[in-house]
Amino acid sequence: MLKNKVSAVITTNYDTFLEKEVFNKDFQVYVRQYELFSADSYNIAEIYKIHGSATDAESIIITEDDYKHFRSLGN
């Protein structure tokens, strides 16, 4: 089983395929920058969506303006 061999996943994908189909919702999903590698993160059974997620439209970073806004927040 894949989830027994992978401790964490970093992805630029926005879809929910990994958490719904590959890891069967067993992995904690982190979307926002402040969530990534937080004190509550153990780097075990985690998915890091570094460009946002389809489940949180405000988190998606795809255009040049999105990147500028992201940088302006100090992230």
| Intertermini distance | 35 Å
Shape: globular
Q: What is the overall number of helices?
A: 2
**Fraction in beta strands:** 5-15%
Instruction: Provide the spatial order of strands within the biggest beta sheet.
Output: 1-3-2
Domains (count): 1
Assembly type of the chains comes to single chain
Radius of gyration from CA coordinates: 13 Å
The whole-number mean of residue pLDDT values reads 83
The topology string of helices and strands comes to EHEEH
- Low-pLDDT runs of 5+ residues are none
Short summary:
With 75 residues, this protein is of the alpha/beta class. The chain starts with 7 loop residues before the first strand and ends with a helix.
Task: Considering the chains and any ligands shown, give keywords for the structure.
single chain; 75 residues; alpha/beta; three-stranded parallel beta sheet; 2 helices; 3 strands; 15% strand
Layout of secondary structure:
Elements: E1 8-11, H1 17-22, E2 28-30, E3 46-49, H2 64-72
Parallel strand pairs: 1-3, 2-3
Protein architecture, described:
- With 75 residues, the protein is of the alpha/beta class.
- It has one domain (2-72).
- Helix content is 20%, strand content 15%.
- It is built from 2 helices and 3 strands.
- The protein starts with 7 loop residues before the first strand and ends with a helix.
- The relative contact order is 0.21.
- The model has no long low-confidence stretch (mean pLDDT 83).
